[in-house]
Amino acid sequence: MPPRPSRNVDQLLLEAGHALLPETGVRGLSIRQVTERAGVNLGMFHYHFKTKDVFVRAILEQKYNDMFTSLKLTTKSKGAATDNLRAAVTLLARWGRDNRVLFVRLLGDALAGEQVAIEFLQANMPRHIQVVVELVLQAQNAGELRKLPLPQVMSFLIGGVAAPIVVGTAAINGGLVPPFVSNQLEQTVFTDAAIAERIDMALTGLAAPKKSGAKK
Amino acid sequence: MPPRPSRNVDQLLLEAGHALLPETGVRGLSIRQVTERAGVNLGMFHYHFKTKDVFVRAILEQKYNDMFTSLKLTTKSKGAATDNLRAAVTLLARWGRDNRVLFVRLLGDALAGEQVAIEFLQANMPRHIQVVVELVLQAQNAGELRKLPLPQVMSFLIGGVAAPIVVGTAAINGGLVPPFVSNQLEQTVFTDAAIAERIDMALTGLAAPKKSGAKK
DNA sequence: GCGATAACTATACAATCGTATAATTATACA
DNA sequence: TGTATAATTATACGATTGTATAGTTATCGC
């Protein structure tokens, strides 16, 4: 029973999908566009993946391995709680920056109600957020941070640290800003130093009204 | 020359558009859906508005009057610069909260590359942002805030204060969170008190390393 | 070389979209 | 009362979408 050998068209399709998805988002991704880019017959899409949902899910699953496996957050209990928190948030923020293009697109898709994007974020984000939550609680219990409501703390922290990356990326990708502003953004907002600075500022704002807070 | 009197179908269409746009966004807005909701023949759409772009622009223009005219920011030079900044940011943040549903949708549309949404935000946002920029510069020159790069300051300030509202709204609208979490969000993130708290935290983080910062 | 079998091609279907237009209707004035 | 005229209707065009399928092709074991 020897059939015709595969030309691995499914791989070509997935590669084209990886290239196109960050540009177009889920809703904007056209099957014909994918097959054309892959240099493959339209029928092969249905042959391998049946539906667009399955295809996108396959792409995101591969993205997951590229993105989330590089994000290893640990809750070590050594040292000051705030320092552990700072370390975790730093890792998370840098990871968001390094994956910002796809990440912003997924956020946009999820915001537009795209189910498959929502599911992906819902499935993969909370686990890592939870690490930060626990570190925040530790820092609060240690008296290093004020005991504000968790949603308030988390959204302020993530908003202050990560939102600059999101809006900066969106502005650059959307062509809203001229190139020299893009460079300025990258140098004053995207760098490790800028991230660290924002984290320090956020933690200072969240710090308990002690004598010396969490200044750098 | 007495013609047939109008039944003001254009008004009905605009009303339907106002109701649907925040739910669907620009791209998701279907002309047939609009006419159906307005109880009006499909042809009337082309008769009154010709194209979807014109229609959406008309809706946004009306929204503008509802939204932006209620936002009057002034740069008064009385009192501490930081206090003026705090007042302006407070107004801006409350305004964002009050218009959050449409606002988040427009952000999503713009993020998805929808031209008409981009133009609307580009045309109307910078003017109000500029007021904050100037107040930040005044506070920096007064030595009340550290002289960090403007993009860093603005994105941190707006991110920390407004991002919680945006993500909270998106989460609620997208049905990502159960109702009791929605209530929790609204009470710990959306209230005037919560906004004021975030602004204080952000300003504390941005404050010059003086003896006493901008604590409440 | 033959044939079984999976890979592949060409094409079509049904739905939805924005847009357009020819025909019909209802009115206020002559 | 007839008629000019704008408002309204019914319908269609062309493009694009995701999905499906009948038929063709190339290969390996025999």
Could you explain how this protein is built, in words?
The structure is a homodimer of 216-residue chains. Chain A is mainly alpha-helical and 216 residues long. Chain A has two domains: 9-64, Homeodomain-like (Arc Repressor Mutant, subunit A, Orthogonal Bundle); 71-206, Tetracycline Repressor, domain 2 (Orthogonal Bundle), CATH 1.10.357. In chain A, 73% of the residues lie in helices and 0% in strands. Chain A contains ten helices and no strands. Chain A has helices spanning 9-28, 31-38, 42-49, 52-67, 81-98, 100-111, 115-141, 150-173, 179-188, 192-206. The longest helix of chain A is centred in the middle third of the chain and has 27 residues, at 115-141. Chain A binds a DNA duplex (30 and 30 nucleotides) through helix 3.
Query: What is the level-2 CATH architecture name of the largest domain in chain A?
Result: Orthogonal Bundle
Largest sheet of chain A: none
How many domains of chain A, as an integer?
2
Average of per-residue pLDDT values of chain A = 90
Instruction: Enumerate the spans of chain A where pLDDT stays under 50 for 5 or more consecutive residues.
Output: 212-216
